[in-house]
Give the backbone structure.
Amino acid sequence: MSIPAPGTGAISAGEHVCALYTNHAQRIDTMLPYVSEGLRSGSKCIAFVGDPTPSELVDGLDADLDPRGRISSGQLEVGGADDTFFTPDEFDIDKMLAFWQARIDQGAAAGFDTVRLTADAAWWGSQLPAGDALIRYESELNRLAGGGPQSILCLYDLSSASGSFVLDILKVHPRVFLGVLEMPNPYYLTPDEFLAMRSTPAANDSRGNALKLVPDQRT
């Protein structure tokens, strides 16, 4: 059995984790351990990035992993900005959760014991409507992660997020990383606690401008 990679590589099945990054290179460096360890341990790995093509992530994987061979075998699935599945007008939390559950079920049917999902907000943000829809969706991902042998890693660009939005992100992720370093997170709320908080009038303000999904600065 392989030794888990440091940082995001050591995320276990059943976990829903957030990673914050500040530039393009840090984003890739954060995703790579998560995907690499998944491939080494025999997991199905699904990754979506906001780039037009996902080749940089694939090229960053160790050659001994034979990433393109694993794509051909179905163990690795990587999508880019053109691989979208929803529009803001079609947004429905239950449908989005069902979409991911179907991907997980496909992995199980193909013989994979665990499935690792990861996606950058630059990819899915354009598919969601304005307001706090994204945060409500993120909270419900905790139920999805905890319901079977899968883990979820969500990535957010700190340079395009407001302070209030980052606080909301902390509330809906039990564990938070800055790059590959884990940060303490005393703000987490379970999905039921989050829903109760959002049901109060003061909490129902719009956060439509909290996250501006601008192209990252590649440094």
Notes: The CA atoms of residues 18 and 154 lie 5 Å apart. The chain has one domain: 13-203.
